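Annex B. Sample input.
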Amino acid sequence: MEQNLKICQSCGMPMQEEQYGTNKDGSRNDSYCCYCYKDGAFAQDCTLEEMVAFCAPFEVEGGRAGNLEEAREQLLKYFPTLERWRG
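Annex B, continued. Sample output.
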């Protein structure tokens, strides 16, 4: 397994080679995953809070949070450190 996995700067997912997003010209985008960024644009036009609500169940499912409330709290602290949500 690759040691230096890149993290999607929108949803925080560690990206494998086949999970990178794409730029408008079809080239690989190293900053965002294929679920968040495709053909040079974000796949979902959403707020930080909407992204947290969408991602929280995956945190519980993956065992990184005990429940949805805990997952939401963690993501509300983490997402503002990612490129898409800064500022």
